[in-house]
Amino acid sequence: MSHAQDLTLVQQATAIGSGDLDADELLTATLERIAQRDPVLNSTPVVFERESRAMLASAPRGPLYGVPITIKDMFALPWRGPRSATTAELFPAGASGPYRRLRDAGAVIVGIANQHEMGMGTTGAESVYGAQHNPWNLEYCAGGSSGGSAAAVAARLVAGSVGSDSGGSTRIPAAYCGVVGMKVTFGSLPYDGYFGVTTSLSAPGVLTRNAGDARLLAEALLDRALPAGPRGALRVGVVRDPYVEDCDPDVAAACEAALRATGWELVDLAIEHVELAGAALLSRLVAEVGRPPTPVFDRLSVTSKALFVAGSLMSATSVPRGDRVRGAVRDSVARAFHDVDLIAWPSSPAPAPPLAAPWVNLPSGPATADMANVRQTGLANLTGVPGISVPVGIHPTGLPMGLQLLAPWHHEARLLDAAEQIERATGSAFVNLVPVGFGS
Amino acid sequence: MTDFADWALAASRYAGLEVDGDVVALAELIYSGVSQQLAALDRIDLERFPVLPIDPRHEPTTR
Fold first, then answer.
1. Alpha carbon of A102 to those of A89, A108, A313, A430: distances in Å?
2. Predicted confidence band at B62 (pLDDT cuts at 50, 70, 90)?
């Protein structure tokens, strides 16, 4: 007999609505599954047994009524302030904007999703709770910084999780763990109580098993309908250098095959000044990250401490220059969207690396996973546009691969339509895969 | 001890932060790598990159 968490988010919501699934029983089953499966993943280190039952007891009959989800350690909850995977609360407890949206939709928050410490990495290897492990191979990175969200969804602990994304932190772990991850348009929901409230790059995101689930969870988060559009052919621009050409060949081939399967018109795209986007993003990332209070700093990992020390010594003169580039790149991207419906390239240039050696080998040579990943995903953060990662295959190493799609500002529905088209074109072959040991 | 290490330790001490040699050594590597990447911004032609309003919530209106 299958477990209730083997149902998708939409199936759970529908079954509860029709009376075929009892929300109390689903919550109990979810808490049991987390207890059973998470010890090897470390995706959900804090579980809210009492608070989730209270949330369910007072939940409105919204579109997510009774559906259990996890939330990244970056959002204030009434009973807990965000810690961003450090030793102490960095903001006070309270009803953050994203929390209010989930609560009002009837969702039940069952636990904190583990993440890369302070959100400052794409591997999930550093956290006060310990590293997050990839369900497809426990010795490999789950990704970051929303690694716990992706691992929990892939291993069917929950069908949906809310993450965040300042440089790819929703899309990269989604690609690593073989789930759908969508970053919404910057500033498109209330940011109060969100650890990323003061940045100009960060946006919440949703991680789910498929695009339909992402639509339901994103509608709740954005508090607006994201209706499916007509299934017309799309014109998709692909920027090949360096985003495709400097990728693992199997990753590039899987993304190309998925795009070809849709029948969309694919065109090679040039985005003016894009070669400077990485530097512009880096100037802002360095400037916008806030150092935590000294007692928290003292207990950070060596890597995070070093990032703060190095960042504090960087000259601020790169920021106004980076912003000039940012303005120009935003214009270029807006112009590109007059010619194409979507922009596409691999979410991550290589599959997840081992936790013990988070490096990737690219045609251009070896690189840290962080630098290679943010190169692929940072454009959405620099410009503010929404982006999604869709599973498109399994690498010969046995790890998932993801295709990234970008759409114009506030066109999340177009991304979800496109992701569903990819799922249809590939027979849902990749969204239905379950890591060995995490099936029913 | 390198000049960078002296600088990093002094700045950290001034900020009230205790850091050890491992942190400083890694910070030096990171600083070097980031500086290398940011150097591209020092070379931009300011005439080609005017100051533009940036509101990442919306599509730019300056095109």
1. 21, 8, 39, 28
2. low
Distances A390 to A93, A167, A174, A398, A416 between C-alpha atoms, Å: 33, 17, 8, 17, 10
Helices A302-313 and B3-14 sit at what angle, rounded to 10 degrees? 90
Name the minimum distance, in Å, from the CA of B14 to any CA of chain A: 12
Which tokens is A314 given? Answer: 């960087």
Is residue A1 pLDDT above 70, yes or no?
Answer: no
- pTM flag (> 0.90): yes
Specify the pLDDT at position A433.
Answer: 92
Helix (H) / strand (E) element for A89: namely none
Rounded Cα distance between A331 and A336, Å, is 9
Beta strands in A342-386 (DSSP E): 342-346, 359-362, 365-368
d(Cα A20, Cα A39) in Å, to the nearest integer?
30
User: Cα A402 vs. chain centroid, distance in angstroms?
Assistant: 12
Distance of residue A379 Cα from the nearest chain B Cα, in angstroms: 12
pLDDT tens digits, A170-226: 999 999 999 999 999 999 999 999 999 999 999 999 999 999 999 999 999 999 999
CATH superfamily, with its number, for domain A4-425: Amidase signature (AS) domain (3.90.1300.10)
Question: How big is chain A by its Cα radius of gyration, in Å?
Answer: 20
Any idea what the Cα angle at residue A429 is, between residues A427 and A433, rounded to 5°? Answer: 150
Pull the structure tokens for residue A353: 């690396």
Give residue A81's pLDDT.
Answer: 98
The beta-carbon neighbor of A283 closest among B8, B22, B38 is B38
ipTM of the modeled complex = 0.96
**A2-A8-A14 Cα angle (round to 5):** 100
User: What is the token pair recorded at A239?
Assistant: 């920027």
Average pLDDT over residues B9-24: 96
Q: What would the pLDDT profile of A25-42 be if each residue is shown by its tens digit?
A: 999 999 999 999 999 999
Flag if B42 and A327 touch (Cβ within 8 Å): no
Residue numbers in A near B21 (CB within 8 A): none
Residue by residue, DSSP assigns A257-325 as HHHHHHTPEEEE---TTGGGHHHHHHHHHHHHPPPPPHHHHTTS-HHHHHHHHHHHHS-TTHHHHHHHH
Domain boundaries, chain A: 4-425
Nearest by CB to residue B41, choosing from A185, A303, A322, is A322
Gap between the Cα atoms of B4 and A302, Å rounded:
17
